[in-house]
Amino acid sequence: MELQKSFLDPRTKLLLVFVEATLVLATAGGERLVVFRLAFTVLPFLLLLTAKCYSACIVGMLVLTVTEMLKYFVFQSSNGTLSFLLLMAITLITRFLPAYLMGVYVIRTTKVSEFKAAMERMHVPDELTIPMCVMFRFFPTVREEGTSIRAAMKMRGIGLGGGKASEMLEYRVVPMISCSAKIGEELSASALTRGLGKNRKRTNICKIGFGVADYIVMVVVMVMIIYWMAGYFGSVG
Amino acid sequence: MIQFEHVDFTYEANSETPSLRDISFTVKTGECVLLAGASGCGKSTLLRLLNGLIPEFYPGERKGRVLIEGREISNQEIYDLVGRIGTVFQNPRAQFFNVDTTSELVFGCENLALPEEEIVKRLEKTVADFHMEKLMNRSIFELSGGEKQRIACASVATLHPEIILLDEPSANLDFEGTENLRQMLAAWKELGKTILIAEHRISYVWDIVDRVLYLEEGRLRADWHKEELVNFTEETCQKYGLRSLVRSSPMMFVTPEGYRLEQNTAVTKAVKEQADQIVLRDFSYTYRHGATFRVRELRLPRYKVTAIVGANGTGKTTFLECLSGIRKNKGKLYLAEGENAGQDAAENGLGRAYSGRRCQKLIFMVMQDPNHQLFTESVLDEVLVSMPEEDEDKARVILEEVDLAQYADRHPMSLSGGQKQRVAIACAIASKRPILLLDEPTSGLDRKHMLEVAELLKRLKEQGRTIITVTHDSEFIRICCDEVMELSEVSA
Amino acid sequence: MNSQGNNSKLNGRDLINVGIYSAIYFVIVMAFAMTGLIPIFLMLLSSMVAFFGGIPFMLFLTKVKKPGMIFIMSVIMGVLVFVTGMTYMPVIVSVITGIIAELVYRSGSYQSMSKAILTAGVFPLWAVGNYLPLFLQREQYFAQRESYGQEYADAVMRLTPNWMMIVLVLATFLCGILGGLLGRFLLKKHFKKAGIV
């Protein structure tokens, strides 16, 4: 599978992740921004389509639809603890999903070098950029290691029945850290022999820059903030 | 020109035994040199002295001088050597900084702050030279081991180093992967690069190299030149503990009449007695990207070592994972068990049927990366937790059997690759499960350790275990496998 | 270590180490943080982060020999929660707690084990930054979260009188110390023997 090119600048994507998190996940702005919230709930799905991540998009849609149906049919007729639990689940899904999908989109479409270039443009120092690049590169590795270790435990029949918390820590967390740390050592050896961290200015051949789409996103976000602020001061005044 | 003058080196982490002792040699510009010798003989240490990872990354005490083009490099930092010396490492999973291939190729050049046009020019040239247009702009998490190693080589090549070091580059590659690597090395040689390659699997480079430096316990024991190399026989190699020189595909062992497992088809290997077979039915797995792997029926000989061979990506590992229950499965396994077979044996004529958890209880799998299956703080504990009922005396007997008795109290993670493998096998023995699966048990092993694994498997077979191993190691197959089965993709 | 000279500037390897351990730390911490939406767990969140984060953090400290690494890791944590919508406050908090943690470990010349455990107590205080809006901007915080439902808001309200903040800081600190001790135990039991330290 070829990596999909995104038509958005990494900096715009960063902005989108942030908006998604504050507007949809943390529901900043309350009722006043409900239209924007709706728009930003739909946006990740559209973006995923443009990146050809069809399966993530479809699964996301299904989950969202089911949740909404639960909300309208089951939730109305429930009460007490059940309704409380249901509400929790529903809010959790409807708010986390768009932010999560936006994260999926950004990670699928942003190369480490693009991220690096964006950070450099924003004058973030190398001391922060390099660790963050390594971190994003390393998340999938940690996850892979975790999965393999879980599989191995299952095969050996350890920790399935009556697994104690301490054993779980020792047998799962410790090997995961050990394996990841070992891979990390090799990763840094290989990066160092190719000159990472040489205290000089680097070049970057990947082209980033704002296009029409980026400006549209920025204008929308801008309008939203002005509208929100207007309501804020309006109600105060 | 590379010169070593009476070099001694001792790692800080292992200060009792020096890793290199009084090493002196000279490599001329444009020479291609193979560093051979058993595990722990100092091959990797030698390379690390050249690329600067010693002392910056691996501190220790060094005596003597290492010179490149007449200049001592000992006091230079890793960075000063970037662009002059390139290194390809062993583990294809660990040596990438980027997530996409194109960025990886230009990574070094960017760090050197070369001008953009120059980088683009180098990138295009490297891609064309190594014919890797198809590998560009992909996620490294989706590449096979062989493809990853090609990217690793190419990412070194873009730096245009004069000297190229390779540290067991083939350890995780299949036959086709090593053939690709061979072509890359030949191309570099053509370009006049100086190449030093540390390797156990020597067959694929033997006729490319100009010289072989043979090390033993940190000392340089022999320096063979081209004229001597052509006269090497299998016997000479064995005498020096080197791996076979025969460059052959493991597919060669599959007999013409064919013992090929094509997915979606039924395969039967004729066996004399029904009691001597294991029947697998309907093992299948659907990958996330949609492709389905399916074995409708497969009959395997019991109490034998069966090798599964096949090109990359045919699902060999997936097959083992399905059997061992790591991947959830509805498949059934039939074992003829004499009078105990019970009701279902009478019905299907195959023996007792096992599926799900019960099937898992029959099978132990030794994974390709044994790091993933070692959990406890000592080798002895590792064996103990694998036993249905803990019994220290028995555990020690098992460790004796796999030649690990003196390591009983060591932490499993601190052992060498081969030893870890044997710990995992010891756990398999301790678990008393009758079927043992192994995934590439000889990757990265020298001749001695490979033979040890082979011997161990033969013994386990005699004790009444059935062994199925995925492997691409022809020498290993020749020595200990009874049957070879090829796994191929669904034929159109 | 002498071979590296007394250069105290961070080099490539140090920065990569920060990245690697940030990834491990964050994955482990997130696994437990996901439970934070249940009111009672919300309050325990920072303590859990402190406790379980102690294991990779203690291993990380064995790699720290120069000033700056702890601080950078702290800022990264702050930035990560900032991006996930927890307002700007965690960033400020993470900068402050990062500096303190750095100073504590530095006072033990980057090798004292007791200082390391103390550092493990201070470092996770970045996670307390997540609660700050809850106390400092109470009205706004609940206005933003009204859709969680009145029950959720009430539950959180009941659990969070202002003195709760001090309790949270102390609890996080203590759990950090405990996590540090656990980390030290596992260092001895596993990581040292495994040759990772």
Major beta-sheet overview of chain A? none
Number of helices of chain A: 8
Beta strand count of chain B: 21
Poorly predicted runs of chain A are none
CA-based gyration radius of chain B = 24 Å
Q: Let me know the largest β-sheet of chain B.
A: 6 strands, mixed
Tell me, what's the shape of chain B?
globular
End-to-end gap of chain B: 54 Å
What's the pLDDT, averaged over the residues of chain A?
A: 82
Order of helices and strands of chain A: HHHHHHHH
The shape of chain A is flat
Query: Helical content of chain B, roughly?
Result: 25-40%
- Which structural class do the helices and strands of chain A define? mainly alpha
Number of helices in the DSSP assignment of chain B: 17
**Largest interface (C-beta under 8 Å):** A-B, 51 and 71 residues
Residue-averaged pLDDT of chain B: 86
Regions of chain B with pLDDT < 50 over 5+ consecutive residues?
none
Oligomer: heterotrimer
Percentage beta strand of chain A: under 5%
Give the N-to-C terminal Cα separation of chain A. 56 Å
Structure keywords:
heterotrimer; A: 237 residues; mainly alpha; 8 helices; 0% strand; C: 197 residues; 9 helices; 72% helix; disordered N terminus
Q: Could you describe the 3D structure shown?
A:
- The complex is a heterotrimer of chains A (237), B (492) and C (197).
- Chain A has 237 residues and is mainly α.
- Helix content of chain A is 75%, strand content 0%.
- Chain A has a domain at 1-111.
- The termini of chain A are far apart.
- The relative contact order of chain A is 0.13.
- The mean pLDDT of chain A is 82.
- Chain B has helices at 43-51, 53-56, 78-81, 101-111, 116-129, 145-157, 175-190, 226-230, 234-239, 316-324, 342-348, 356-360, 379-386, 392-401, 417-430, 447-462, 474-480; strands spanning 2-11, 20-27, 32-36, 60-68, 71-72, 85-88, 163-167, 194-198, 211-216, 219-225, 260-262, 266-267, 277-286, 292-301, 305-309, 332-335, 352-355, 363-366, 435-439, 466-470, 483-488.
- In chain B, strand 19, helix 16 (447-462) and strand 20 form a beta-alpha-beta unit.
- Chain B starts with a strand and ends with a strand.
- Chain C has 197 residues and is an all-alpha fold.
- Chain C has one domain.
- Chains in contact: A-B, A-C, B-C.
- At the A-B interface, helix 6 and helix 7 of A face helix 3, strand 6, helix 4, helix 5 and helix 6 of B.
